[in-house]
């Protein structure tokens, strides 16, 4: 039985400082920002349909260290990633004197320069500051734990620190504004038609809580998740997905088609399953199935938040299983490996519920389990799973923030 050791913030910072000193001898970084990943407890493929989601920020995330450069005539930014999962170039430069446009390569760069472009557009600085930034993440890439959003939010936090002395009066970015800016960066630069959940959780996370987010008006409510006898176990199937693949965009389109067929702007406006059933002949079967998931998932998410408020873990677990079945059968984004992980967890006494989390097509499951049943759950999955899984035990954590440098 093996739980993965989580990289601490101090360990991540030390790795980055060492890399900075190696790349730039006789120089020291002066800025450090961190943004967490997230696990979504329930409410999947709901954010871009203006419905409810229920994530919590987790202790793994993305950190950026760097510094402002002194050359007053230069507006060049240097970016470097320490990720071992990147097959493209791990560093590049951007000249801010030129319009910032999406990169053909390296594609990972679009997550940071998209934020840079929109941030500069927002604050309209008198002078664009040159800087160096080295990036590292402890979020499993492609696992459905929001590595991309944590990169974006860490970048925005880094830029806030960079510009705060010169342009404090112009920043005025609320946490919601920041989440929306980072979401737009992913949509326009990385070409992913995502909703705001991931960036919102990374900005707004609070230790000991999950966040019930209403994506219709971007309001939220904190729900305590701090029972010491309860464990949030995340199991990585190690089957990776690519969000920019056509299937994600295709499902977004199916949802839009269903809403339009019913005369609504989005599926949030579909009040009941009965209304959806009445309009079934107006849309394709795939559009109906996707919409059926969204409408019922909205109901499950609100009910799930109430269940956790009342410490009703049996009810929350039942809703988790319903959510997974809906993602498998209606939204059709699960896969054999995720289904197997859920069923193995379901067979263990002490497990309340389990479901796939994230966009799907691989990635992770999230399981609510009694702490004294965690070992048995992991052992059961290790014996029965056809692949090799990794296991993480997460607690909720605070959202994006500056981090003091420990030289």
Automatic annotation (TrEMBL):
CC per GO annotation: cytosol
Keyword terms: ATP-binding, Carbohydrate metabolism, Cytoplasm, Kinase, Magnesium, Metal-binding, Nucleotide-binding, Transferase
GO molecular function, one term: ATP binding
Homology family: Belongs to the GHMP kinase family. GalK subfamily.
GO biological process terms on file: galactose metabolic process
Gene3D superfamilies per the UniProt record, alphabetical: 3.30.230.10, GHMP kinase, C-terminal domain
Protein name per its UniProtKB record: Galactokinase
Taxonomic placement: Eukaryota, Metazoa, Spiralia, Gnathifera, Rotifera
Superkingdom to which the source organism belongs: Eukaryota
Domain Galactokinase N-terminal, residue spans: 19-66
Domain GHMP kinase N-terminal span(s) in chain numbering: 110-206
Domain GHMP kinase C-terminal: 306-385
């Amino acid at each position: 039985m093996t739980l993965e050791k989580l990289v601490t913030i101090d360990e991540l910072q030390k790795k980055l400082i060492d890399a900075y000193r190696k790349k730039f001898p006789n120089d020291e970084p002066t800025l450090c920002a961190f943004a967490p990943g997230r696990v979504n407890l329930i409410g999947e493929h709901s954010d871009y349909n203006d419905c409810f989601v229920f994530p919590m920020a987790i202790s793994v995330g993305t950190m950026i260290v760097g510094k402002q450069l002194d050359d007053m005539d230069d507006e060049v930014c240097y970016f470097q990633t320490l990720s071992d999962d990147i097959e493209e170039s791990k560093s590049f430069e951007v000249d801010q004197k030129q319009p910032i446009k999406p990169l053909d390569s390296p594609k990972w760069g679009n997550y940071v320069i998209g934020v840079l472009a929109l941030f500069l557009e927002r604050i309209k600085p008198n002078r664009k500051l040159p800087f160096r930034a080295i990036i590292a993440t402890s979020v499993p890439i492609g696992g459905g734990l929001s590595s991309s959003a944590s990169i974006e939010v860490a970048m925005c936090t880094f830029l806030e620190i960079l510009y705060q002395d010169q342009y404090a009066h112009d920043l005025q970015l609320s946490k919601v504004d920041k989440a929306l800016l980072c979401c737009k960066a992913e949509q326009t630069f990385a070409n992913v038609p995502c909703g705001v959940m991931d960036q919102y959780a990374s900005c707004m996370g609070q230790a000991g809580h999950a966040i019930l987010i209403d994506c219709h008006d971007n309001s939220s409510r904190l729900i305590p998740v701090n029972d010491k006898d309860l464990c949030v176990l995340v199991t990585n199937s190690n089957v990776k997905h690519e969000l920019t693949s056509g299937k994600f965009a295709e499902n977004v389109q199916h949802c839009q088609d269903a809403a339009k067929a019913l005369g609504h702007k989005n599926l949030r406006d579909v009040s009941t399953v009965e209304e959806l059933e009445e309009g079934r002949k107006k849309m394709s079967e795939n559009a109906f199935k996707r919409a059926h998931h969204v409408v019922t998932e909205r109901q499950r998410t609100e009910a799930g938040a109430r269940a956790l408020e009342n410490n009703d873990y049996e009810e929350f677990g039942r809703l988790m299983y319903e959510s997974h079945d809906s993602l498998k059968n209606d939204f059709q984004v699960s896969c054999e490996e995720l289904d197997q992980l859920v069923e193995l967890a379901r067979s263990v006494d002490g497990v309340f519920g389990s479901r796939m989390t994230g966009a799907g097509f691989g990635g992770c499951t999230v399981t609510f389990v009694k702490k004294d049943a965690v070992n048995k759950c992991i052992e059961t999955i290790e014996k029965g799973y056809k692949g090799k899984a990794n296991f993480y035990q997460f607690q909720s954590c605070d959202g994006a923030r500056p981090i003091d440098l420990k030289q």
